[in-house]
Amino acid sequence: MKEKMNKQFAKLFNRNDGQVYYSPGRVNLIGEHIDYNGGFVFPCALSYGTYGIAAKRNDPKIKVFSNPFSKEIYTFDLDHLVKDSKNSWADYIKGSIKAILDKGYKIEYGIDLYIEGTLPVNAGLSSSSSLELLIIYIFDHLNSLNINRPEMAILGKDVENKFIGVNSGIMDQFIIANGQKDHAIMLNTETLEYQQIPLFLDTYSLLIVNTNKQRGLADSKYNERFQECQDSMAILQPKFGIKNLCSLSDEQLLLSKDMLSDTIYRRTRHVQTEQKRTILSAKALKAGHIKEFADLMTSSHMSLKNDYEVTGVELDTLVETLLHSGATGARMTGAGFGGCVVALVETDKFDEVCKQTKAIYLDKIGYEPSFYNVVPEDGVSAI
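Structure tokens predicted for Galactokinase (383 residues):
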């Protein structure tokens, strides 16, 4: 890939002094929709992600070509970082630069930049966060800004919240900045304290399956779920003095049923129980109890389906089909409403599980899913 990036950069910009970078995607193994509720999440960085090659210019222009989104080099200035509805992919680049500048860091010169990804777009594997952290890391590296990795994650979250307009938590950016090969991170989203948990799956493999459904409603529904959790907090915080929904005790959850509408109660129940599943998952993996972890994954999906209502026929069909075909555990990952499922599969059954799942899903949904055999990778870096 590095050789390919160098060739494309030379072809586009007529220069051979570019530095190649890699920013991974991520999969959240468990702990869904609780990173904006102060909970624990359990993601790992992926061996699929976003590659970039960049070199400084001697003027304030950014010249970028993004494969496959660009038809020609796209140009903008450091002092004109505004959204462009005709080239919305570039908003993530502009927003990342703006986030750096807004924190008081100095960037005097622009860059020539070529980008190419191996992540499926709109699949719930954080292609947008991968791009954000790639840009933040490139500008940090080329300008010796000395931004530490937790701060890079915070800057990436600012891009989503303040520039793009999505009320996301910090999980995606944090794991992409801080990932470690063969590990997942147990992250406390309230304090940003984290543990690297070894992810040695022994005779199991990690499988990601893309529904290949376009997630047109994802952002609007994400913001809707965010607001529902805020509504719950507005009622429960004065009553129980809780910091966030994830800190609800079992007794408080039971008492809240009479205080909340049915919908808001079910959203709250998902958050509180998902927090418990995430903590138990880290303990299970530490102890080498893979089957217990797999069962918790499947329970998480059922909560996301029934209480949080963010799955849909494609995700539900994939999970049911994977389990029927021999997967040990499976759940949706990401915002939902399409996107991907993550599953644990015994390695010697991997090919057969994929074959059966592909055939059944095609028969029920009408088009094929895509399969990715993934391993946990390091966070964003120069390569």
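The first helix runs from residue 2 to 13.
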